[in-house]
Amino acid sequence: MKKCLSKTILLLLFLTSTYTLKAQHKFVFGICAGLNTAINGKLTAHSNVGLQGGFEIGDHLNDNTLLTLSLKGSSLNTRDDDYNYWSFTSIMGKYRYILTKEKKVHPYLFIGAGAVNINRPRHHDNEAIDNIWNLGIQAGPGIDIGIFTTYIQYQYSGKAEMWGTMIPLHTLSFVFGVYL
């Protein structure tokens, strides 16, 4: 039984290493931190600014494509009497098309989709806190090591008159990528 198990493990290791060498996988790990702003409905009259941060892991499938999974958290201070502080947590899968094959810097276009949690505390004590999971999409240009901007839309539901509203969230981030 032990011999059979050890042979199976060795075979799996061999197949995995062979597949990895043939596919020329390049795993990537990155961290990001930056600012975000939002403009939406009654928020337009206020100065909206927040911070974001998180990490991303992924795998280069070939020279021009990269699949990643990102986990990000961000805050937004709307300076509004009713909705003074929002927080977002997103789990996104991204598909990237790399525009160049440079080793250190990878400009790319990407599209992503995943789950977004919107936490919207109320200003008044007698109002409930919104804590909603919904779907989110991301798309835009980027650079793995450098600065990039994205246009993100999150759909949320809350008070009756605000159902189905989309929040444009413009982000400016510093991304540090480490290729393994």
Q: How would you characterize this protein structure?
A:
The chain has 180 residues and is mostly beta strands. The protein has one domain (26-179): Beta Barrel (Porin). It has one helix at 2-23, and strands at 26-38, 50-60, 65-76, 86-98, 107-120, 130-143, 146-156, 165-179. Strands 1-2-3-4-5-6-7-8 form an eight-stranded antiparallel barrel. A hairpin with an 8-residue loop joins strand 7 (146-156) and strand 8. The longest helix has 22 residues, at 2-23. The two termini are 36 Å apart. The relative contact order is 0.18. InterPro entries: OMP/PagP_B-barrel (IPR011250). Keywords: Signal. It comes from Flammeovirga agarivorans.
List keywords for this structure.
Outer membrane beta-barrel protein; 12% helix; 8-stranded antiparallel beta barrel; Porin; signal; 180 residues; OMP/PagP_B-barrel; 1 helix; mainly beta
Q: Specify the oligomeric state.
A: single chain
Strand content: over 45%
Rg, Cα atoms, Å: 21 Å
Q: In order across it, which strands form the biggest sheet?
A: 1-2-3-4-5-6-7-8
Please state the second-level CATH architecture: Beta Barrel
Q: State the share of residues found in helices, binned by percent.
A: 10-25%
Q: What global shape is seen?
A: elongated
The average pLDDT is 61
Give the strand tally: 8
Q: Structural class of the helix and strand makeup?
A: mainly beta
Element string (H = helix, E = strand): HEEEEEEEE
User: How many discrete domains?
Assistant: 1
Sheet with most strands: 8 strands, antiparallel, barrel
- Ends apart, CA distance between termini: 36 Å
Signal peptide: 1-22
Protein name: Outer membrane beta-barrel protein
Organism: Flammeovirga agarivorans
InterPro entries: OMP/PagP_B-barrel
